[in-house]
Design a protein that fits this description.
There is one protein chain. The N and C termini lie close together (4 Å). The chain is mainly beta and 182 residues long. The chain has one domain: Jelly Rolls (Sandwich), CATH 2.60.120. The chain is built from 1 helix and 13 strands; from the N terminus they run H-E-E-E-E-E-E-E-E-E-E-E-E-E.
Length: 182
Amino acid sequence: MAVKTWTSERVTSADINTYLTNSGLVYVTSQTFSAVASVSFNNCFTSTYDNYYIQCSVIGSVAGNAYTLRYRSGGTDATSNDYAYWGFYWSTSAANLTTTGTTSLFVNNRSTSVYDVTNIYVFGPAQSRTTGHQVDAIELNTGLLIKTAGRFGLTSTFDGCTIAAASGTISGTISVYGYRKP
């Protein structure tokens, strides 16, 4: 984002355009898909942005079955047991979600009647460090709320990710955005 030292109380249209152009989210890529076991994004994480936002609108063929995220590098999923996440889900009561030493990150359960809404925030995937994430999700059919945070525990550099159904298939649209650097 552009830095400006204000010398007067007047803000010009040029100032506003500069701030609007140099802030916020930047569209990177998206895919719309139907009845697939998984969707992979290659070369969507780069050094252009440090952090990313992934917006998922997904419906599944098997109700209540999870879909997951794996990070990728060079077109290959990272499948080692180095993923971990902590959080909770809430429907009629709260329950903990805690898993370490797993091969993917839990993202959301899925409905067969309405699209689920999932927001994934990914921190530092293209940097040589531990990659973190946060998930805010709701399963719209039942109102199940999911909130998790986690990491891929090894120092790695990733350039993409895969969203996959635990079983059955998924359909929908997934979009990736980069957060502009200040």
